[in-house]
Amino acid sequence: MKKIAVLTSGGDSPGMNAAVRAVVRKAIYHDIEVYGVYQGYQGLINNNIKEMDRGSVGDKIQRGGTFLQSARCPEFKDPEVRKKGIQNLQQMGIEGLVVVGGDGSYRGAQRLNEEGIKTIGIPGTIDNDINGTDFTIGFDTALNTIIEVVDKIRDTASSHERTFIIEVMGRDAGDLALWSALAGGAETVLIPEHKKDVQEIADKIQQGIERGKKHSIIIVAEGVMSGDHCSEELKKYINVDTRVSVLGHMQRGGSPSGMDRVLASRFGAYAVNLLMAGESGYAVGIQNNKLTKTKFEDIFSSHHEIDEDMYRLTNELSI
Ligand code: F6P
């Protein structure tokens, strides 16, 4: 393979730049020409494709966001629209494409693979909701961002004896909520994978107050309900002073953690290795600290699951 391209797609995540850097540098190391597609699949359709040199990715490893920029591009589901993107790649002699993104981005990559472009996916999303990998790029950084905020909220919650409801991202997955609840010592976590009775939560908070607890932290995944709705529900059962914090897009920003930079670098280099070996239609991942590859169709064939042991542990430690 002589020419490859890389793009970032869907919601950005800290570490995407490190992944692009690894793809570019690894390709150049092996004398492969490498191109950056700007603005995800939208840029592929619009022919916003530029050659990268080793300097193009200098001073990027520590930066959040994605310098290639990203876009959600529902039109890419249309085969006629995809054809334009494929033609743009073929006219430049580009045979392989690395797509850094989440589940939706992988579906586009799978189609491109079926339609003649060799594609490899790299899991980039803060949600950690992709099958075939223990971790996605950006999850660790987002987790650390949340924990920092939870620690700060705990200070003021304690001073005012309040119950705080902190709404975190994750789309339909509870990983960010679960991990931040465990790491932040939250009293309660609500995740889409497990139904919890609001009355039960209210009873637990009441018992805590009776034992002299000065505050309570409830972490609610956006996939369950909004923080405001959670507060309204809680107040049906208990008379507590509540405040709601919706962390929002701050969870997507910031300089990537060391873990995310290393993960992204390993994924990027491995994706190039696979393309060089003529492989296509796979997403890379990490399982038990070993790099793995999984066919796109296997990734889509089942729902992402949370770590049930961790859920149990979080509940056991938050008594
Ligand atoms: O998939 C990443 C994510 O941040 C989700 O956690 C969240 O639900 C969604 O993207 C928000 O999307 P947007 O930035 O398009 O509002």
TrEMBL record:
GO-annotated molecular function: 6-phosphofructokinase activity; AMP binding; ATP binding; fructose-6-phosphate binding; identical protein binding; metal ion binding; monosaccharide binding
Domain Phosphofructokinase: 3-275
UniProt binding sites for Mg(2+): D103
Protein name, entry field: ATP-dependent 6-phosphofructokinase
Reactions this protein catalyses: beta-D-fructose 6-phosphate + ATP = beta-D-fructose 1,6-bisphosphate + ADP + H(+)
Species name: Macrococcus hajekii
Active site (UniProt): D127 (proton acceptor)
Protein keywords: Allosteric enzyme, ATP-binding, Cytoplasm, Glycolysis, Kinase, Magnesium, Metal-binding, Nucleotide-binding, Transferase
Residues engaged in binding substrate: T125, I126, D127, R162, M169, G170, R171, E222, R243, H249, M250, Q251, R252
PROSITE patterns referenced in this protein's UniProt entry, alphabetically: PHOSPHOFRUCTOKINASE
Biological pathway: Carbohydrate degradation; glycolysis; D-glyceraldehyde 3-phosphate and glycerone phosphate from D-glucose: step 3/4
Entry EC number(s): 2.7.1.11
Compartment(s) of residence: Cytoplasm
Primary location: cytoplasm
Pfam families, per database record: PFK (PF00365)
BP term (GO), one: fructose 1,6-bisphosphate metabolic process
Primary role: Catalyzes the phosphorylation of D-fructose 6-phosphate to fructose 1,6-bisphosphate by ATP, the first committing step of glycolysis.
Top EC class, one word: transferase
Classification via PANTHER family: ATP-DEPENDENT 6-PHOSPHOFRUCTOKINASE (PTHR13697:SF4), PHOSPHOFRUCTOKINASE (PTHR13697)
Residues annotated for ATP binding in this entry: G11, R72, C73, G102, D103, G104, S105
Chain residues that bind ADP: R21, A22, V23, V24, R25, R154, G185, A186, E187, R211, K213, K214, H215
InterPro entries associated with the record: ATP_PFK, ATP_PFK_prok-type, PFKA_ATP_prok, Phosphofructokinase_CS, Phosphofructokinase_dom, PKF_sf
GO CC annotation terms, alphabetical: 6-phosphofructokinase complex
Protein family (similarity comment): Belongs to the phosphofructokinase type A (PFKA) family. ATP-dependent PFK group I subfamily. Prokaryotic clade 'B1' sub-subfamily.
Assembly and oligomerization: Homotetramer.
